[in-house]
Amino acid sequence: MSEFKRIPPEQAQALREQGAVVVDVRDPATFAALHISGSKHLDNHSLHAFIQGADLDAPTVVVCYHGNSSQGAAAYLISQGFSDVYSMDGGFELWRTVYPAETAQGTGE
Fold first, then answer.
1. Is 64 labeled as catalytic in the residue annotation?
2. Per-residue pLDDT tens for 28-44?
3. What is the largest CA-CA distance in the chain?
4. Which of 7, 64, 78, 94 is flagged as catalytic?
């Protein structure tokens, strides 16, 4: 079984530009306030549907507040059959300082 990889925001951005799926595991209100453009919000309510509809081989980048919770979520996705999963170090807090123009408001997808 493979393991997830920890990556910096710059690598996450490169993967995103190549079509990687970005999932955000922060709480819904925080996600709605500001998130990475094009990212999907994942929580206990949306997780099952996301897994059912996902391409398990597509690169998937998991984002949280600071890069800690995303590691657990990334490990869970690996356990569910995902093969190319990344946890972004520094989380959204670091992302928005590095890529402030690559953020959006609202509920996203």
1. yes
2. 999 999 999 999 999 99
3. 36
4. 64
